[in-house]
């Protein structure tokens, strides 16, 4: 198995090298691969970790106990996860022309949105800032006023100068968050979904809610998760 893994890694490195990418390979052997990946990334002062996952719907336990979950939970940098439903680019040119940034509008939402906006600017693409809520009950404030309030909060996440470089649209809808994120991604033909990953004492609270795990398992485009520092 070690020899086969080494050969696969060598072929992958050759593919990157032939595309002009500088490559350095390292074989990690550990009982805790997630911790080893995070440690390696920190030692290299990495800006991004890219992972593949075989997560499937209905097997949430596998996701929660997987290497991907462990890396997302502890990584200091953003993590880009390529799930089982992500299709390979047909033209060989990979760019993020349509990006969804889904947020719960926590205090650090602006910091996380800045990265999503920067990616959209780099591709001269479109960014959809989304906030999804459970449907209001009978005693909830007026739904229209609430929607306008959240739309205004989303608009504040995009610096005024960014409008010269990318198109942005704010979406506030009611419904189960994971389903709405996936539906919106299909509707706007998203090429990247960006999520904030909150960390709890043991598990990501969003993993616990099933939002991140379901999106990772079912998304047809890569998913980037951005954690909160110092937690």
Q: Which features does this protein show?
A:
single chain; 231 residues; alpha/beta; Rossmann fold; seven-stranded mixed beta sheet; 9 helices; 7 strands; globular
Please give a structural write-up.
Strands 1-2-7-6-3-4-5 form a seven-stranded mixed beta sheet, sandwiched between helices. It has helices at residues 2-18, 33-43, 60-64, 67-74, 109-123, 143-155, 177-187, 205-209, 211-218, and strands spanning 49-52, 79-82, 98-102, 126-133, 167-174, 192-197, 223-227. It is of the alpha/beta class. The chain is globular and about 65 Å long. Among the domains are: 1-30; 98-227, Rossmann fold. The chain contains nine helices and seven strands; from the N terminus they run H-H-E-H-H-E-E-H-E-H-E-H-E-H-H-E. Strand 4 (126-133), helix 6 and strand 5 form a beta-alpha-beta unit. Residues 59-65 and 200-208 have low confidence and may be disordered. Helix content is 40%, strand content 17%.
């Amino acid at each position: 198995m070690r020899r086969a893994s080494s050969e696969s890694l060598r072929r992958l490195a050759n593919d990157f090298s032939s595309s002009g990418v500088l490559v350095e390979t390292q074989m990690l052997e550990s009982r805790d691969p997630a911790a080893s990946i995070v440690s390696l990334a920190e030692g290299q002062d990495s800006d991004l970790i890219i992972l593949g996952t075989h997560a499937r719907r209905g097997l949430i336990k596998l996701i929660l106990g997987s290497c991907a979950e462990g890396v997302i939970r502890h990584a200091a940098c953003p993590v880009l996860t390529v799930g089982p439903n992500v299709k390979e680019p047909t033209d060989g040119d990979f760019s993020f022309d349509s990006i969804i940034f889904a947020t719960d509008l926590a205090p650090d939402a602006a910091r996380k949105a800045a990265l999503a906006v920067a990616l959209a600017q780099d591709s001269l693409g479109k960014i959809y800032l989304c906030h999804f809520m459970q449907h209001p009950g009978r005693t909830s404030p007026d739904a229209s006023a609430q929607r306008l309030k959240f739309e205004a909060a989303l608009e504040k996440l995009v610096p005024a100068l960014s409008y010269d470089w990318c198109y942005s649209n704010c979406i506030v809808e009611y419904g189960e968050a994971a389903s709405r994120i996936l539906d919106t991604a299909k509707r706007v033909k998203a090429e990247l979904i960006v999520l904030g990953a909150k960390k709890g004492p043991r598990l990501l609270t969003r993993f616990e809610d099933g939002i991140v795990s379901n999106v990772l398992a079912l998304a047809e485009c890569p998913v980037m998760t951005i954690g909160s520092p110092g937690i």
